[in-house]
């Protein structure tokens, strides 16, 4: 692999497919002791993770469903 005159590097298609590096995916280049690490930029928490446990209800789902249905 070579670095172009403009500082660009082409990541082989097999690696792009394997790691989900598609068009417009943002990456970070992180300096590490051995060289550079290419890492997909994290978009934060999964939406479910941000609301998990918000209701703080008991774990009895059947009872909760009965309450919601008004029985």
Task: Summarize it.
This protein is an alpha+beta fold and 71 residues long. It contains three helices and two strands. It has one domain (13-68).
What would you say this structure looks like, in words?
The protein is of the alpha+beta class and 71 residues long. It has one domain (13-68). It has helices at residues 13-19, 47-51, 61-68; strands at 27-32, 35-40. It has a two-stranded antiparallel ribbon with strand order 1-2. Strand 1 (27-32) and strand 2 form a beta hairpin. The termini are far apart. The model has no long low-confidence stretch (mean pLDDT 84).
Keywords for this entry:
two-stranded antiparallel ribbon, 2 strands, 3 helices, alpha+beta, 71 residues
